[in-house]
Structure formats: structure tokens, C-alpha cells
Amino acid sequence: MALQMLVNHPQVLEDNALAAVVAVQSPIKGTPTAQFLYEKVTATQAGIRAVCRRCSLGILDDLAKGARSMDKKITEKNIEQVGRLSAAQVSLLNQKLFYVASYSSAQYSKLGTYIINGKNDGTVPTDNQYIVGVGRLLAVLPDVGHTDLFFSGLKSGMTSSKRRVFAHTLMDSLIDPRASLEAL
User: Fold this and answer.
1) What is the DSSP string of 15-37?
2) Is residue 15 situated within a structural domain?
3) Which residue range forms the structural domain that includes residue 12?
4) Is 122 among the domain residues?
5) Model-level pTM?
6) What are 84-130's pLDDT values in tens digits?
7) What is the DSSP string of 100-130?
């Protein structure tokens, strides 16, 4: 979604409206889980609509749109649009777009019981979390699942204090490029 916003609205880069965009574990190049999630959400929506025609499904509608935006066909179009940016816009994009990728040794996703081949965070393949040559990869964090950096409780394998350390270190690395997330 971050890349889609930037390539569709390059004036945001030119107007200095944003100091930085950080894509943390973002499915920049899509994820095989997108179709799975989309199907589950739309089935849930259909079930609710069958019972209650007036019920608001705003959150589910947003979730369905989000899942659809992670589909490989959609993300490939976003990556193609990077090639249409001017050299000056690409230079700005490289200065303002940052990635944090991760992978986990768990062989399952917390969203379901399917397996993604290769290094992944349980939801998004690690190689799909950034684009080489577009923006800057700040770190590839080992043993960090997709929900670990943002959720607490059963959905996370990380403590809240470690998440705070991550957030502070991330901000430090944006201010001082020599700071590293790799030590986390």
C-alpha cells in the first residue's frame, strides 16, 4: 500500500509532504496469503449480509480491499509504475522509502494452517517485503513473525518492551543512517 500511494501520487514526494515512509513487513511484491484472506473475508461478508441486509460491514469491506491490494497481480502493476517515474522522482523515492523485513522459523501462519515455501514471516515471503534498488532496506529481522512487531498477547511472539525498543531504534535509524536495527 505504501508503494502504491507513492507511485500513484508522486507529488507527495516532490512537495516534501512526507519525511519518510517505512514499510514494515509490507507485502510490497504481494503475498500468497492475500487470496486466502480475501476469500475468507468475502465469505464472512456474504454470511452476514444473508442474515442482516442493513448491517454495516465497513471494517470487513476495508479488510477485503486490503487483501485485494496484496494480490501479486496488483503489486506487479505498482512495481511497473515505478518505471514510469522520472529520474528525479525515483531519487526522491529512494531517499524517503524504507523497508524493514523479517522472517520466522515457524512453519505456519497465525492466520491459517498453510505453509509458504522459503523464508517468510508467516504471512509474507521475506523477498516480497522490499524491492532491491527502490528505497532502502533497513534490516531483515530474524525470528520475527508477521504479527510480532505490532500486536500483543497470543498473536505476538514479542514482548511489548521489545516492540518499544524496535520503534525507538527504527526512529533512530531514520534520523541517523548509521544506527542499525540488525542488533534487535
Assistant:
1) TT--S-EEEES--TT--THHHHH
2) yes
3) 2-30+75-175
4) yes
5) 0.74
6) 888 888 888 888 888 899 888 765 555 554 557 778 888 888 998 88
7) EEE--S-SSBTTBS---SSSBSSSSBGGGG-
